[in-house]
Amino acid sequence: MIKLKYSILLLLIFSVVFTSCKKEDVAATSIVKCWTLYETEGNRSTFLLCDNENLGTSWYRQSYHLQADNVCSYTVLSPSDAHYTEEGTYEYSDTTKFLTIKDEWGDVVVKYSVISIKSNELVMELLFSQ
User: Fold this and answer.
1) Phi and psi of 22, rounded to 5°?
2) What is the pLDDT of residues 87-98, one digit of tens each?
3) CA–CA separation, 58 vs 47, rounded Å?
4) Quick check: 109 pLDDT over 90?
5) pLDDT digits (tens, 9 = 90+) for 51-62
6) Average model confidence (pLDDT) for the chain?
7) Distance CA 37, CA 127 (A)
8) C-alpha–C-alpha distance, residues 100 and 95, integer Å
9) Alpha carbons 100 and 22: distance in angstroms, whole number
10) Radius of gyration of the chain measured on its C-alpha atoms
11) What is d(CA 110, CA 50) in angstroms, rounded to the nearest whole number?
12) Which domains occur in the chain, in start order?
C-alpha cells in the first residue's frame, strides 16, 4: 500500500513538472508557416495556410513561405502576368508586430503590421510595398 502511495505521489510530481514547463511564445512560432492571401479589405489582408481547402481557385494569390531560419520564398506577379517565386529573408518582431519581407539583396519588398495570428489565420495591415 505504501509503494502505491509513493508511486501515485511520484506520478503527480512528474505530471506537474512536465506540464508547468515554460511554453514557447505562440506568436513568434506560429508565423513560421506557408501563408496564402485569402481576402483583402482596404490595407488589411487575411492570409490562410497554403494547404487550406477554403481558398478555392484563383488567378493569382500572394503567398509567403516563412521558415524557422528567417529564410522565405514569396510569389511575384510580373507586369507580363507571369507568376514566379523569389527567395529572400524575413524579419518578425513579437514586440513591434512588424513583418518585413526582403529580397535576396536585402531590399524591403513588403512590410506588414500583424494584427492577429491564429493557428490557421494571419491578419495583417500593409505598411509598405514595392
Assistant:
1) -65, 130
2) 999 999 999 999
3) 14
4) yes
5) 998 888 888 899
6) 84
7) 16
8) 14
9) 28
10) 21
11) 19
12) 24-129 (2.40.128)
